[in-house]
Amino acid sequence: MRPNDPRILRHRRMLEMRAFDEACLEALRRGEIHGELHTGINQEAIGAAMAESLRPGDAVVSTHRNHFHALAKGVPARALLAEILERETGLCRGRGGHMHPFHPPTNFSATGIVGASLPVALGYAQAFRLRGEDHVAVGVTGDGGSHTGAFHETLVIAGARRLPLVVLVENNALAISVGFGDVSPTATVAERAGAWGARGMLVDGTDVDATAEAFAAAMEQARGGGGPVLLEATCTRARGHFEGDPDTYRTREEKRRLREERDPIALHRARLLAEGVGADALDRMAAEVRAETARLLEAVRADPLPDPAGAALYLWAEEA
Amino acid sequence: MRDEPSPGTRAALPIPALIAEALAGEMARDPSVLLLGEDVGRLGGVFGASRGLLERFGPDRVMDMPIAEMAFTGMGVGLAMAGMRPVVEIMFADFVGVCLEQMVNAAAKIPFMSGGRQRVPVVFKTAGGCIGSAAQHSQCLWGLFGHLPGMKVVVPSSPMDHKGLMAAAIRCDDPVLFVEHKRLLLSKARDSLQGAEVPEGEVVTPIGRARVARAGGDVTVATLSLGVEHALRAAAEVAPEGIGAEVIDLRSVVPLDMETVCASVARTGRLLVVDEDYLSFGLSGEVVARCLEALGPGALRQVGRLAVPDVPIPAALPLERAVLPGPEAIAARLRAMAVGA
After folding, report:
1. Does B78 sit within 8 Å of A121, measured CB to CB?
2. What's the CATH class of domain B11-191?
3. Regarding beta strands B176-181 and B211-214, do their DSSP bridges make them parallel or antiparallel, or are they unpaired?
């Protein structure tokens, strides 16, 4: 397999995403992030899969757990990390923080309110339709968000208008502590798609190859005018809902098993090794990515924090 | 007695037709302007404020929506982020409860949260005020949106401003809430005490500038929306008694033009705020507090507030009248405050 083989790039993207969130964890330990932090560790396959089919004009509206989606959309990692570290050099000059990154040049945004991403993505989809552009809007949510009224309402409108919208559900089976199986009326989210005239797709979101294929198919349908797609990618959350979550709702054994058996990077590495990719090459790649991310973190750490004198700035257009 | 105007004169236009003129003018001028909401298309709006627009601009730009306010309000946010200028109609102000998330946490916060890098030029158009529809269809709620930062809040009263403030709201690069009063929407331009003449062409009322609707030297009445009409009626009633009431139409809650209010109060020394929104934690208290901060407590001999006492609006007419600050209540308060003037 050549180094620029799509599946090697896929693997590298997952490594970059994990390294990115590990850098966030390190910054948090050092007190350089003073607020809440939600990492996506164990959910890298979905972000890496998205990166392959997203085009510059497409829009992604993400969630509180948004770092990988931002990287997948092409948001500059430097400015993203700086925003997470609350720096003036961040995407949003330190006003948004990790739950609220906005990057208009790539049509990337997020919300910290579960389910609220989808109506905004609907607006992007409608704008693309009105302007005759072949872009797709991707609204990301989780299994928790799939139970909100906004989820239903968004799909009502997108389904009726056949809009180029992909609703991507990262089903990690936990809404903080509430298990998907304990509250969902259906065994999967995807099977509800028929209610809105959408195509429902279900994929193992720990399998990056399968997820990349499924996401590409979803984007193709939406881009081609085939109407909205509800793509559910099952995955697991390796850490607590947020850093500091006592996570007492799962046993140690369960968490250990998730880390060992459902880690998308380990799973993909095993597959690549079985197909003859050298362990050395993958190790070298992992070391490179770690070193690059360490340099990125060091650079961001040197950036200034916002000047308190500007705390009230940027509410209105004339201040921008 | 009012002379019946000859048919076809603009004074006979219903107030919603003036809003429709502003919408049509802006849609013709800027292809990114859109209208979406319940009953805005085929019906032309429940009050007629978008009549004729579907026929003129087509269903891509005038979109009838299902009763899915959370989604279409957020759709407006997304459209605005994607470079369009949507006007989202939320039929009655009371209905914001079901879409507040997108108004408050998305539209109003995203420009700030993005460090000024993401614009959200959306207009939320909604009808407030009492016409006998009781607790869930009568609220004004502009104070709520004044309290929550990030959204401009404009409230037309005169026929001219129904047209001019809508045009200004659409051109504004910030999210704007445009709160109509149902009683005014049910009236015609000629019914207004503030002048019926509104040009057919472009009218843009600058956002954030109050207007002195009637000059007077004894008591300053700061109000807005239908309250301006009530205050003008009351001022006319007490004028023969030698009481000069200066009536100020605030026109916008955010930004609040305290310069105009304070300049008047500095002369009169008496401030009465008339507000059809709830009394507590709202516009009336805010105007008084800012006035005191700006002029100092010694500048005011009399201060009063007339607003809906902190109860939901009741259904029965005598009960509704009892809680609303109408012309009689305003006149009575003016007389009480003007003692010694």
Report:
1. yes
2. alpha beta
3. unpaired
Residues B211-337, CATH architecture: 3-Layer(aba) Sandwich (3.40)
Contact B72, B80 (CB under 8 A): no
B137 a catalytic residue: yes
pLDDT band at A320 (very low <50, low <70, confident <90, very high): confident
A interface test, pick of B32, B87, B98, B113 with most A CB neighbours within 10 Å: B113
Q: Which of A222, A167, A220 is nearest to A193 (CA)?
A: A167
Best CA proximity match to A178, nearest among A237, A230, A231, A233 = A237
- Complex-level ipTM: 0.96
B223 touches chain A (CB under 8 A): no
What homologous superfamily is domain A6-296 in, according to CATH? Thiamin diphosphate (ThDP)-binding fold, Pyr/PP domains (3.40.50.970)
**Test the B interface: residue of A92, A131, A153 with most B CBs within 10 Å:** A153
Instruction: State the average pLDDT for chain A.
Output: 96
Percent of chain B with pLDDT over 90: 96
pLDDT band at B6 (very low <50, low <70, confident <90, very high): low
Start-to-end Cα distance in chain B: 32
Which residue's structure tokens are 């005598």? B318
A120/B73 touch (CB, cutoff 8 Å), yes or no: no
Partner-chain contact A109 B173, CB within 8 Å: no
A107 vs B contacts (CB less than 8 Å)? 81-82
